[in-house]
Automatic annotation (TrEMBL):
Annotated region (Disordered), positions in chain: 1-24
Keyword terms: Hydrolase
InterPro entries: His_Pase_superF_clade-1, His_PPase_superfam, PGM_Phosphatase
Gene this protein is translated from: cobC
Protein's UniProt name: Alpha-ribazole phosphatase family protein
CDD domains: HP_PGM_like
Highest taxon of source: Bacteria
MF terms in GO: alpha-ribazole phosphatase activity
Pfam families tied to this protein: His_Phos_1 (PF00300)
SUPFAM superfamilies found in the cross-reference section: Phosphoglycerate mutase-like
EC code: 3.1.3.73
Organism: Marinobacter xiaoshiensis
Amino acid sequence: MADSTSMFDLIRHGEPEGGPMYRGSKDDPLSEMGWQQMRSAVTESDRWDAIVTSPMLRCVHFAQELADTRGIPLHKDERLREINFGEWEGRTADEVMANDGERLSQFWANPVAHTPPGGETAKDFNRRVTESWHHWREELAGQKVLIVCHGGVIRMVVADVMNIPLEHSFSSVATPYACRSRIQVDTSAHGLFQSLVAHGSFKASTP
Protein backbone atom coordinates (compact mmCIF):
# COMPACT_ATOMS: atom_id res chain seq x y z
CA MET A 1 0.00 0.00 0.00
CA ALA A 2 1.47 3.34 -1.10
CA ASP A 3 1.94 5.90 1.64
CA SER A 4 -0.41 8.87 1.31
CA THR A 5 -2.20 11.53 3.32
CA SER A 6 -5.58 12.75 2.11
CA MET A 7 -7.69 15.62 3.43
CA PHE A 8 -11.44 15.63 2.90
CA ASP A 9 -13.55 18.68 3.73
CA LEU A 10 -17.26 17.89 3.93
CA ILE A 11 -19.70 20.80 3.78
CA ARG A 12 -23.44 20.67 4.25
CA HIS A 13 -25.54 22.69 1.83
CA GLY A 14 -26.95 26.05 2.93
CA GLU A 15 -30.61 26.88 3.54
CA PRO A 16 -32.83 25.72 0.66
CA GLU A 17 -35.88 27.55 -0.63
CA GLY A 18 -38.76 26.81 1.72
CA GLY A 19 -36.61 26.93 4.84
CA PRO A 20 -35.94 24.17 7.40
CA MET A 21 -38.02 21.00 7.02
CA TYR A 22 -37.66 17.27 6.61
CA ARG A 23 -36.61 17.69 2.98
CA GLY A 24 -34.87 14.41 2.16
CA SER A 25 -35.41 13.64 -1.53
CA LYS A 26 -37.38 16.87 -2.10
CA ASP A 27 -35.12 18.66 -4.57
CA ASP A 28 -35.26 22.36 -3.67
CA PRO A 29 -32.48 24.78 -4.74
CA LEU A 30 -30.63 27.06 -2.36
CA SER A 31 -32.36 30.19 -1.14
CA GLU A 32 -30.61 33.55 -1.33
CA MET A 33 -29.60 33.05 2.31
CA GLY A 34 -28.32 29.57 1.45
CA TRP A 35 -26.05 30.96 -1.26
CA GLN A 36 -24.69 33.50 1.19
CA GLN A 37 -24.03 30.79 3.77
CA MET A 38 -22.13 28.63 1.29
CA ARG A 39 -20.06 31.42 -0.17
CA SER A 40 -19.17 32.64 3.33
CA ALA A 41 -18.11 29.15 4.40
CA VAL A 42 -15.20 29.00 1.94
CA THR A 43 -12.36 31.45 1.38
CA GLU A 44 -9.74 32.14 -1.26
CA SER A 45 -7.18 30.43 0.97
CA ASP A 46 -8.99 27.09 0.71
CA ARG A 47 -7.27 24.78 -1.75
CA TRP A 48 -8.82 21.62 -3.17
CA ASP A 49 -7.72 19.28 -5.93
CA ALA A 50 -11.22 17.96 -6.61
CA ILE A 51 -14.87 18.44 -5.63
CA VAL A 52 -17.37 15.62 -5.13
CA THR A 53 -21.04 16.52 -4.81
CA SER A 54 -24.51 15.18 -4.28
CA PRO A 55 -26.52 15.72 -7.49
CA MET A 56 -29.35 17.41 -5.57
CA LEU A 57 -29.91 21.05 -6.50
CA ARG A 58 -29.10 22.44 -3.06
CA CYS A 59 -25.60 20.95 -3.40
CA VAL A 60 -24.70 20.72 -7.06
CA HIS A 61 -25.40 24.35 -8.00
CA PHE A 62 -22.84 25.64 -5.50
CA ALA A 63 -20.38 22.84 -6.25
CA GLN A 64 -20.57 23.65 -9.98
CA GLU A 65 -20.04 27.36 -9.37
CA LEU A 66 -17.01 26.69 -7.19
CA ALA A 67 -15.54 24.17 -9.63
CA ASP A 68 -15.98 26.56 -12.55
CA THR A 69 -14.55 29.53 -10.66
CA ARG A 70 -11.47 27.69 -9.46
CA GLY A 71 -10.92 25.27 -12.31
CA ILE A 72 -11.33 22.17 -10.11
CA PRO A 73 -12.57 18.77 -11.41
CA LEU A 74 -16.15 18.05 -10.31
CA HIS A 75 -17.55 14.57 -9.65
CA LYS A 76 -21.29 13.95 -9.08
CA ASP A 77 -22.31 10.89 -7.08
CA GLU A 78 -25.92 9.71 -6.77
CA ARG A 79 -25.00 7.78 -3.63
CA LEU A 80 -24.53 11.09 -1.78
CA ARG A 81 -28.22 12.02 -1.96
CA GLU A 82 -29.92 12.74 1.35
CA ILE A 83 -31.96 10.01 3.06
CA ASN A 84 -35.57 9.74 1.88
CA PHE A 85 -37.86 10.69 4.77
CA GLY A 86 -41.01 9.30 3.15
CA GLU A 87 -44.25 10.81 4.45
CA TRP A 88 -42.37 13.38 6.53
CA GLU A 89 -40.85 15.14 3.54
CA GLY A 90 -41.94 18.72 3.02
CA ARG A 91 -43.05 19.07 6.65
CA THR A 92 -41.31 20.98 9.44
CA ALA A 93 -40.05 19.28 12.58
CA ASP A 94 -42.90 20.86 14.55
CA GLU A 95 -45.48 19.57 12.07
CA VAL A 96 -44.10 16.05 12.18
CA MET A 97 -43.90 16.15 15.97
CA ALA A 98 -47.51 17.32 16.22
CA ASN A 99 -48.84 14.63 13.89
CA ASP A 100 -46.40 11.76 14.26
CA GLY A 101 -44.43 12.61 17.38
CA GLU A 102 -44.01 9.11 18.75
CA ARG A 103 -42.53 7.70 15.55
CA LEU A 104 -40.30 10.76 15.14
CA SER A 105 -38.91 10.33 18.66
CA GLN A 106 -38.36 6.63 18.00
CA PHE A 107 -36.50 7.41 14.79
CA TRP A 108 -34.06 9.78 16.50
CA ALA A 109 -33.59 7.35 19.40
CA ASN A 110 -32.84 4.40 17.10
CA PRO A 111 -33.12 4.97 13.32
CA VAL A 112 -32.14 1.36 12.61
CA ALA A 113 -35.27 0.00 14.31
CA HIS A 114 -37.61 2.83 13.28
CA THR A 115 -37.82 3.93 9.63
CA PRO A 116 -39.84 7.05 8.68
CA PRO A 117 -43.19 5.92 7.20
CA GLY A 118 -42.63 5.24 3.52
CA GLY A 119 -38.98 6.27 3.82
CA GLU A 120 -35.54 4.78 3.29
CA THR A 121 -34.10 2.51 5.96
CA ALA A 122 -31.07 3.70 7.90
CA LYS A 123 -29.18 0.58 6.85
CA ASP A 124 -29.79 1.19 3.14
CA PHE A 125 -28.85 4.86 3.50
CA ASN A 126 -25.71 4.04 5.44
CA ARG A 127 -24.70 1.37 2.93
CA ARG A 128 -24.82 3.66 -0.11
CA VAL A 129 -23.12 6.58 1.64
CA THR A 130 -20.27 4.51 3.04
CA GLU A 131 -19.81 2.85 -0.37
CA SER A 132 -19.39 6.33 -1.85
CA TRP A 133 -17.08 7.46 0.93
CA HIS A 134 -14.81 4.42 0.59
CA HIS A 135 -14.75 4.81 -3.20
CA TRP A 136 -13.63 8.45 -3.16
CA ARG A 137 -11.27 7.85 -0.26
CA GLU A 138 -9.43 5.37 -2.50
CA GLU A 139 -9.97 7.09 -5.86
CA LEU A 140 -8.68 10.49 -4.67
CA ALA A 141 -6.04 9.28 -2.21
CA GLY A 142 -3.32 11.80 -1.52
CA GLN A 143 -5.46 14.78 -2.56
CA LYS A 144 -7.36 17.60 -0.87
CA VAL A 145 -11.04 17.11 -1.62
CA LEU A 146 -14.26 19.02 -0.94
CA ILE A 147 -17.46 16.98 -0.62
CA VAL A 148 -20.68 19.03 -0.91
CA CYS A 149 -23.51 17.04 0.61
CA HIS A 150 -26.21 16.77 3.28
CA GLY A 151 -26.52 16.57 7.04
CA GLY A 152 -27.42 12.90 6.98
CA VAL A 153 -24.55 12.08 4.64
CA ILE A 154 -22.06 13.85 6.90
CA ARG A 155 -23.40 11.89 9.87
CA MET A 156 -22.85 8.59 8.03
CA VAL A 157 -19.29 9.48 7.03
CA VAL A 158 -18.39 10.69 10.53
CA ALA A 159 -19.92 7.54 11.99
CA ASP A 160 -17.69 5.46 9.72
CA VAL A 161 -14.60 7.47 10.64
CA MET A 162 -15.28 7.42 14.39
CA ASN A 163 -16.86 3.95 14.62
CA ILE A 164 -20.15 5.34 15.92
CA PRO A 165 -22.86 2.65 15.95
CA LEU A 166 -25.52 3.28 13.31
CA GLU A 167 -28.16 3.31 16.04
CA HIS A 168 -26.60 6.52 17.42
CA SER A 169 -25.31 8.06 14.20
CA PHE A 170 -28.16 10.50 13.54
CA SER A 171 -28.31 12.01 17.02
CA SER A 172 -24.57 12.14 17.77
CA VAL A 173 -23.46 14.87 15.32
CA ALA A 174 -24.96 18.34 14.83
CA THR A 175 -24.79 19.52 11.20
CA PRO A 176 -26.18 23.05 10.74
CA TYR A 177 -26.37 24.69 7.32
CA ALA A 178 -22.95 25.22 5.68
CA CYS A 179 -21.25 23.29 8.51
CA ARG A 180 -17.80 21.95 7.60
CA SER A 181 -16.07 18.79 8.75
CA ARG A 182 -12.46 17.82 8.04
CA ILE A 183 -11.27 14.23 7.85
CA GLN A 184 -7.66 13.16 7.46
CA VAL A 185 -6.91 9.77 5.93
CA ASP A 186 -3.42 8.27 6.20
CA THR A 187 -2.42 5.09 4.40
CA SER A 188 0.86 3.24 4.85
CA ALA A 189 2.28 -0.24 5.21
CA HIS A 190 0.64 -0.27 8.64
CA GLY A 191 -2.84 0.15 7.18
CA LEU A 192 -5.44 2.88 6.79
CA PHE A 193 -6.15 5.39 9.53
CA GLN A 194 -8.88 8.03 9.35
CA SER A 195 -9.69 10.72 11.89
CA LEU A 196 -12.03 13.68 12.31
CA VAL A 197 -9.74 16.67 12.84
CA ALA A 198 -12.29 19.52 12.78
CA HIS A 199 -16.04 20.03 12.79
CA GLY A 200 -18.19 23.16 12.79
CA SER A 201 -17.45 26.60 11.40
CA PHE A 202 -13.85 26.93 10.25
CA LYS A 203 -12.13 28.38 7.23
CA ALA A 204 -8.43 27.58 7.52
CA SER A 205 -7.26 25.20 4.81
CA THR A 206 -3.91 24.17 6.29
CA PRO A 207 -4.10 20.83 8.17
